[in-house]
UniProtKB/TrEMBL annotation:
This is Tissue factor. Transmembrane segments: none annotated. PANTHER family: INTERFERON/INTERLEUKIN RECEPTOR (PTHR20859), INTERLEUKIN-22 RECEPTOR SUBUNIT ALPHA-2 (PTHR20859:SF51). GO terms for cellular component: plasma membrane. InterPro entries: FN3_dom, FN3_sf, Ig-like_fold, Interferon/interleukin_rcp_dom, Tissue_factor, Type-II_Cytokine-TF_Rcpt. It comes from the Eukaryota. The keyword Membrane applies. Gene3D superfamilies: Immunoglobulins. Keywords: Blood coagulation, Disulfide bond, Glycoprotein, Hemostasis, Lipoprotein, Membrane, Palmitate, Receptor, Signal. It is found in: Membrane. GO terms for biological process: blood coagulation. Initiates blood coagulation by forming a complex with circulating factor VII or VIIa. The [TF:VIIa] complex activates factors IX or X by specific limited proteolysis. TF plays a role in normal hemostasis by initiating the cell-surface assembly and propagation of the coagulation protease cascade.
Length: 213
């Protein structure tokens, strides 16, 4: 019995946590302190805060990986959720390891907008699109993140003659089409961010797009 108790404790999953980008929400964990045996498998359950019963996540029942996608189970993004994971090895089951409470709307990371650059003679026109959530409208199109938040777009210019690391904020606002005048013959790079004023949170920078007029 003591050996079983030791095995139970040593296979118990560690560091159970949610990670989420644009409401694509996954539960992550690390193996227990024991060297992970080949036959170790994991079982995942989830629930909304305040519910008494846990739900099994069938796709993550007896899996060997350390990640479970709970996006479709967490579509009510204002609700707080919990996840929990237990491990089994050699016929022994660990106790459950619990995540912290996680509310997608409050805690998901927002991605940068997608950017299309159109050149004219003396300027560039940027067309920005809000990142998309995984959730769909009745007609099947993905709901943009701007449906869930008041988003602002930030546009940065890097003048490659001056300093590749020096970004200048040239626009912040809600417009999706932005015209920027540039000097011909100079190489510029554009980066953008999404900013959520209500949460005071910014996305990562978009990938850099460089251009010479």
């Amino acid at each position: 019995v003591v050996e079983n108790q030791d095995l139970q404790d040593s296979i118990k999953p560690q560091k159970v946590e949610f990670r989420s980008l644009n409401f694509n929400s996954t539960l992550h964990w690390q193996p227990g302190t024991a060297r992970e045996a080949r036959d170790t498998v994991y079982f995942v359950q989830y629930k909304v805060y305040g519910q008494s019963t846990w739900q099994n996540k069938d796709d993550c029942w007896g899996i060997q990986g350390h990640v479970c996608d709970l996006t479709s189970e967490m579509s009510d993004v204002q609700e707080p959720y919990y996840g929990r994971v237990k491990a089994a090895s050699a016929g022994v089951y660990s106790n459950w390891s619990l995540s912290c409470r996680f509310t997608p709307w409050r805690e998901t990371m927002i991605g940068p907008p997608t950017v299309t650059v159109v050149h004219t003679n003396k300027s560039i026109i940027l067309k920005l699109q809000a990142p998309r959530s995984p959730y769909k409208r009745k007609r099947g199109s993905q709901i943009p993140m701007s449906n869930y938040y008041d988003l602002l777009y930030q546009v940065f210019i890097i003048n490659n003659l001056l300093n590749e690391q020096h970004r200048v904020l040239v626009y912040e606002g809600k417009d999706k089409v932005i015209k920027i005048d540039l000097r011909p013959g100079v190489s510029y790079c554009i980066e953008t961010k999404t900013y959520v004023p209500m949460l005071d949170r910014s996305s990562a920078y978009s990938s850099r797009q460089c251009t010479v007029l």
